[in-house]
TrEMBL record:
Function statement: Allows the formation of correctly charged Asn-tRNA(Asn) or Gln-tRNA(Gln) through the transamidation of misacylated Asp-tRNA(Asn) or Glu-tRNA(Gln) in organisms which lack either or both of asparaginyl-tRNA or glutaminyl-tRNA synthetases. The reaction takes place in the presence of glutamine and ATP through an activated phospho-Asp-tRNA(Asn) or phospho-Glu-tRNA(Gln).
A Pfam family assignment: GatC
Catalytic reactions of this protein: L-aspartyl-tRNA(Asn) + L-glutamine + ATP + H2O = L-asparaginyl-tRNA(Asn) + L-glutamate + ADP + phosphate + 2 H(+); L-glutamyl-tRNA(Gln) + L-glutamine + ATP + H2O = L-glutaminyl-tRNA(Gln) + L-glutamate + ADP + phosphate + H(+)
Subunit structure: Heterotrimer of A, B and C subunits.
Keywords on record: ATP-binding, Ligase, Nucleotide-binding, Protein biosynthesis
MF-aspect GO terms: ATP binding; glutaminyl-tRNA synthase (glutamine-hydrolyzing) activity
Naturally occurring in which organism (per UniProt): Paenibacillus oceani
Family assignment from sequence similarity: Belongs to the GatC family.
Name this protein carries in UniProt: Aspartyl/glutamyl-tRNA(Asn/Gln) amidotransferase subunit C
One Gene Ontology biological process: glutaminyl-tRNAGln biosynthesis via transamidation
EC number(s) given by UniProt: 6.3.5.-
Length: 95
């Protein structure tokens, strides 16, 4: 498969880009080089390679969730500029 200037113009139109003739030619060459490289990958023997969703094993690195006592509400609200009913009181953001 190869990319033509018509393909590049079509994609540019979909992306609402205006490309000059030189840009169209350059992108056509670049996209064809990418496809040529991808075709080289088809030459690899992958018959005995197990399919994977990720190249490295994924491990959950989070710590265990341990229940601990909370800080006393008096200590938490000690430096609050304003509090009401054991909660931080802040200026209204909606009218």
């Amino acid at each position: 498969m190869s990319i033509t200037a018509k393909n590049v113009d079509h994609v540019a139109k979909l992306a609402r880009l205006q490309l000059s003739e030189a840009d169209t030619e350059r992108f056509t060459d670049q996209l064809n080089a990418i496809l040529k490289y991808a075709e080289k990958l088809n030459e690899l023997d992958t018959d005995h390679v197990e399919p994977t969703s990720h190249p490295m094993p994924l491990v959950n690195v989070m710590r265990e969730d341990n229940v601990r006592p909370s800080w006393p509400i008096e200590s938490v609200l000690k430096n609050a500029p304003d509090e009401e009913d054991g909660q931080f009181k802040v200026p209204a953001v909606l009218e």
